[in-house]
Amino acid sequence: MSTMPGGPSGGGTQAPPPGPTAPKSAWRRALDWFRGLGEAGKVGVVVGLITVTGTLLAAIVGPVLTALLSDDKSPTASSVTPSPTAVNSQAPVQDDSVSDDGQSPANPSSPSPSALPSNPTYVTEYEDQTMQLGQGEGAGTLDFDKPAARLLSDEAWSELSDDAESQSRPVEPDLAFVSQGWGILSLLPGRNAAQLDSSPEGGEECAKSANLGGFSEAYISNDSVNVGDVFCLITDQGNVVRAEILNFNGEGLNRTLIVFTVTMWKPQ
């Protein structure tokens, strides 16, 4: 029976030495290390990992949240205040109420009493004009602005009054002379007037008297109005009138016509 050749010592064949062992990974070494810890050591490692993880999350998430909140608080277009340059760059708005010479354009319509300037001057429109105010069937009227005197029937007088009322404006005449059995001289609505014993010198004085007066109507037949009485009146167009009674055409209830001498001033 043959045998394997022996080694240098003449013995039998020996087994080859074991090969090198593969090194453990870092994760495996850490796991083995963790398994070798006691219960208290394991708890300490877990707490430490939680603390480190929280710190890392705060370092990453914190800036992101800050950036998001900053975006929400950024100013919107409606809250941005325009710069002075943007405001001043707007084109100026032209005021059409002022003309090139710095004066307000003249109003084409005549001023109403409430629209008169605080200290107007007055220019004579006509002077010592004779005007007659009769009764007519319904009423006699006198419009100093035109000037014009009219005799109206009852129907025409009612239409004139109703038309003015429907348009919320004064009737055109300033004075009315209505019979109604007594003969009444009436100041029509929308005017101011005063009954005076003497004649004012000019438009300023007459306007002042009219604004302070309280005349509304008078019975012609009982001598409450006499020859020489003066009425200062502001018309619905803002003109100032001085009307002095020259005479009547009768006595008492027979007074059916009043004759005035009239001067009118326009305010400037």
Output the keywords:
2 domains; 5 helices; 5-stranded antiparallel β-sheet; alpha+beta; 10 strands; about 270 residues; about 25% helix
Quick structural summary:
With 268 residues, the chain is of the alpha+beta class. Helices cover 27% and strands 24% of the residues.
Overview of this structure, please?
By secondary structure, this protein is of the alpha+beta class. The protein folds into two domains: 26-67; 113-267. Helices cover 27% and strands 24% of the residues. It has five helices and ten strands, in the order αααβββαβββαββββ. The strands form two sheets. The chain has a five-stranded antiparallel β-sheet. A five-stranded antiparallel β-sheet has the order 3-2-4-5-7. The longest helix has 34 residues, at 39-72. The termini are far apart.
Instruction: List the secondary-structure elements in sequence, H or E.
Output: HHHEEEHEEEHEEEE
Described by the principal axes of the CA atoms, the overall outline is rod-shaped
Oligomer state equals: single chain
Low-pLDDT sequence parts? 1-13, 73-114
